[in-house]
């Protein structure tokens, strides 16, 4: 029998997506350059398969893969972003792929590459893309999927994607648990929704990752304050995070932080985090988000700050030297009751900074969508992030509600629910940052979010002086608050009388 789907790239994500597809009743022809990986997925499938027929067929070449598929062929790629995607596309052309065949790129491709590839290969095959979030467990038991590209391809992919994606309970908005091989979830809202034309899905996934960077950094800063500012142990911090994870801050990233903090190596009682080198890695999607925010002209300082925090962490040797050469503040003792208040304040600081990070990400998507002509549905994007993905959190339901109240919302800060939350919690947020600052603990993400909030709520900013400076040294002109908009003025700064002139365009 011919298979329903071809699959190329059997790394951790690929292998688990194959098993997820198989659980949902699809037969897979699987190929990887490493035969070992092909054998591994077959072995895993044999181990998990409860039916009498094999679900995964291993292939040893691109040609064999195509020959094992129903036509028109549907092929899923799970290969690293960049050159490997083109390499596989070229190999499939060599193997005889047809113009009505569909290739789905599930990697973290840069969105402009996806746009260019769709155009480049349009006479050879239909390139569809669908970013996947959720890591290896998500891939196995239900990821969040961000498909985009040809609507014709989507019509074919939709039932498959809706079947394998994470599901959300229609009433509670919470993820429906699925964690066993063979288990499938037939009800609930799928975390897979069509995003838009080529590139849109990868753009949205890129912003998801930018938010992921900010979310992670915010939690890490809170850990830093609790550890270095209050001198709490990893277990004590895990207890606090666990409590927070039962309320407004309920999220996957908070949940895994608890697990990481509690973990001790088997041969010592030392918490693992104390043994992990404090140098953060990054594959680039956070950086792309920050770069895009600068290009689009949409402030995303908390996301950018999270990228900077990873960069600064990588200067380990320099920091070690500077820790000897540069002094910090004198020690401020903290009483037990102050300590309890600080913990409470920190909870609100995390929540407020999180709102700002998401506000930045959603506004960035909105402005990028305008620039590229995409009709993004933000309530739908928030919905598919409620389960399966790395930033899944109870909080995403509040964002869904905000965009359902007003689909044209310019910025989440302006939604009445979030505005109220920020207004009620801002004092605690400010106090947390004051405490960290007095202790010399860097809180770039928490503080940049507060500066963002304060800038956004300021009707007047010091850009008036800035415009004066620009006009002084570069005759760049300025507008006046007391004159009609658009009228440009310049002062002859180098003359004695400093005459002001109206400049005609
Ligand atoms: C996801 C993750 C995933 C990947 C990140 C890691 O949504 O499943 O974001 O895509 O783990 O790319 O990124 P860094 O290596 O840059 O932290």
Structure report:
It is a single chain. With 505 residues, the protein is α/β, with parallel strands linked by helices. The protein folds into three domains: 5-198, Rossmann fold (3-Layer(aba) Sandwich), CATH 3.40.50; 202-456, N-(1-d-carboxylethyl)-l-norvaline Dehydrogenase, domain 2 (Orthogonal Bundle), CATH 1.10.1040; 463-503, Single alpha-helices involved in coiled-coils or other helix-helix interfaces (Up-down Bundle), CATH 1.20.5. Helices cover 53% and strands 9% of the residues. Strands 3-2-1-4-5-6-7 form a seven-stranded mixed beta sheet, with helices on both faces. It has a two-stranded antiparallel sheet with strand order 8-9. The protein has a two-stranded antiparallel sheet with strand order 10-11. α9 (234-244) runs antiparallel to α10 and α15 runs antiparallel to α16 (395-405). The radius of gyration is 26 Å and the shape is globular. The N and C termini lie far apart (72 Å). The protein binds 6-phosphogluconic acid. 6-phosphogluconic acid binds at residues 108, 133-135, 209, 212, 281-283, 285-286, 389-390. Substrate binds at residues 108, 133-135, 208-209, 213, 283, 310, 470, 476.
The tally of helices reads 19
Overall outline: globular
Q: What oligomeric state do the depicted chains represent?
A: single chain
Write down the CATH class of the largest domain.
Answer: Mainly Alpha
Q: How many angstroms does the end-to-end distance come to?
A: 72 Å
| CATH architecture grouping of the largest domain | Orthogonal Bundle
Strand percentage, roughly? 5-15%
Helix/strand-derived category reads: alpha/beta
Bound molecules: 6-phosphogluconic acid
Number of domains: 3
Residues in helix, %:
40-55%
What do the pLDDT scores average to? 97
Order of helices and strands: EHEHEHEHEHEHEHEEHHHHHHHHHHHHEE
C-alpha Rg (nearest Å): 26 Å
- Main sheet: strand order: 3-2-1-4-5-6-7
User: Which regions have little confidence, pLDDT < 50, spanning 5+ residues?
Assistant: none
Biggest beta sheet summary: 7 strands, mixed
């Amino acid at each position: 029998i011919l298979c329903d789907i071809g699959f190329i790239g059997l790394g951790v994500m690929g292998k688990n997506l194959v098993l997820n597809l198989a659980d949902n009743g699809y037969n897979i022809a699987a190929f990887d350059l490493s035969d070992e990986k092909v054998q591994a997925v077959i072995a895993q499938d044999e181990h998990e398969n409860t039916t009498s027929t094999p679900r995964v067929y291993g292939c040893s070449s691109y040609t064999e893969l195509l020959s094992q598929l129903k036509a028109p062929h549907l092929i899923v790629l799970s290969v690293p972003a960049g050159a490997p995607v083109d390499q596989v596309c070229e190999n499939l052309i060599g193997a005889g792929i047809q113009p009505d065949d569909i290739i789905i790129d599930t990697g973290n491709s840069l969105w402009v590459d996806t746009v260019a590839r769709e155009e480049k290969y349009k006479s050879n095959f239909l390139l569809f893309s669908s970013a996947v979030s959720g890591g290896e467990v998500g891939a196995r038991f239900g990821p969040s999927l961000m498909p985009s590209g040809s609507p014709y391809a989507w019509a074919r992919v939709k039932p498959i994607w809706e079947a394998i994606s994470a599901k959300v309970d229609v009433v509670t908005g919470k993820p429906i648990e699925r964690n066993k091989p063979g288990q499938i979830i037939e009800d609930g809202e799928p975390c897979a929704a069509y995003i838009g034309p080529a590139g849109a899905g990868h753009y949205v996934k890129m912003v998801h990752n930018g938010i992921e960077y900010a979310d992670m950094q915010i939690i890490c800063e809170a850990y830093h304050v609790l550890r270095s500012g209050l001198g709490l142990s990893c277990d004590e911090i895990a207890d606090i995070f666990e409590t927070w994870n039962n309320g407004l801050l309920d999220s996957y990233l908070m949940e895994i932080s608890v697990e990481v903090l509690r973990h001790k190596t088997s041969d010592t009682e030392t918490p693992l985090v104390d043994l992990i080198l404090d140098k953060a890695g990054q594959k680039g999607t956070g950086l792309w988000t920050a770069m895009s925010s600068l290009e689009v002209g949409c402030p995303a300082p908390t996301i950018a700050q999270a990228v900077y925090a990873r960069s600064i962490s990588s200067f380990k040797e320099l920091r070690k030297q500077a820790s000897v050469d540069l002094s910090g503040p004198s020690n401020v003792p903290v009483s037990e009751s102050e300590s309890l208040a600080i913990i409470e304040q920190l909870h609100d600081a995390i929540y407020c900074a999180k709102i700002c990070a998401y506000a930045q990400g959603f506004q960035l998507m909105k402005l990028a969508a305008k620039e590229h002509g995409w009709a993004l549905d933000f309530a739908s994007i928030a919905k598919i992030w409620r389960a399966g993905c790395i930033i899944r959190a109870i909080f995403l339901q509040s964002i869904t509600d905000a965009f359902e109240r007003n689909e044209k919302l310019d910025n989440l800060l302006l939604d009445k629910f979030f505005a109220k939350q920020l207004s009620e919690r801002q004092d605690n947020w400010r106090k947390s940052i004051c405490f960290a600052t007095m202790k010399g603990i860097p809180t770039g993400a928490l503080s940049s979010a507060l500066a963002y909030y304060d800038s956004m709520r300021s009707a007047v900013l010091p850009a008036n002086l800035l415009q004066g400076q620009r006009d002084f040294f570069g005759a760049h002109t300025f507008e006046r608050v007391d004159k009609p908009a658009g009228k440009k003025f310049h002062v002859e700064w180098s003359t004695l009388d400093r005459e002001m002139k109206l400049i005609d365009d």
